[in-house]
């Protein structure tokens, strides 16, 4: 069952920053409609996301603009979730975007022309969250309960995989589809019983409301990935290399400057430094290359996706899985 939720006027933490970012995005209306400027090669669109702190470093420090040079304008668009990044990639509003590996697999299966060209991080960025006064004690107790989740994202796929471990499926709960920050709001207000959370909002819920993580399982969380549109990659391989170099620089800087990363994350989201630090404590800024372990983690989502009803009729997830990861550039550049 699916319920639809009408949010109250009160929004938490980073919502003010989201509104401001969305207002900026609205000013780039042609890009959101997928209408590129006349000289598309001179402008690239890339998302930034609170769930991907490296993208915030990339933007704040100017590493990407430096990498592509003054002849290429970088346009930044806020992604509130993997579903939004895929939406922007599909419409050609952006050419590079950050999503979870599992969401990338779902997106490519359903026709979004993207490939994974790098990992951004290995993160425990999702878990199933309940209020501190909630009497649920385990996954089996979710049967018949209202669960907020953002469709097409890693928290959504994590929820399905978690339920399957106790013999439950989406039909055994009441799904309330909401974008991540609104899911947290619905949990706070008691309009749902649980929430498939996402950092930084999950960290905010823990520290501000002392909400409880009902179920954690890092092995069911797919890695963060950087995607590129296939047509852009074919037409502008040098820019792809420059973007990967910039990401590698941001990664090295982030590893060397954790306190500064926390400050950038806190300033971008409008959340406290403690919340930023909690989110970062769950992130491993692993190497760029998509190795066998990362690939296996991504493809592990395929079985649950096949049975989820989320795949477009006639789509071939096995074919998509076989062509999802492109290691050409990280291999050429010698990135680990």
Automatic annotation (TrEMBL):
GO cellular component entries: membrane; periplasmic space
Aminoacyl-tRNA synthetase is among the record's keywords: no
Keywords: Signal, Transport
Coiled coil: none
SUPFAM superfamilies reported for this sequence: Periplasmic binding protein-like II
Keyword Nucleotide-binding set for record: no
Cellular localisation: Periplasm
Gene3D superfamilies: Periplasmic binding protein-like II
GO MF, any single term: ATPase-coupled transmembrane transporter activity
Domain of life: Bacteria
Residues in Solute-binding protein family 3/N-terminal domain copies: 43-258
Pfam families reported in the protein's UniProt record: NMT1
UniProt-listed NCBIfam families: SsuA_fam (TIGR01728)
Function as written in the Swiss-Prot or TrEMBL entry: Part of a binding-protein-dependent transport system for aliphatic sulfonates. Putative binding protein.
Protein family (similarity comment): Belongs to the bacterial solute-binding protein SsuA/TauA family.
Protein name: Putative aliphatic sulfonates-binding protein
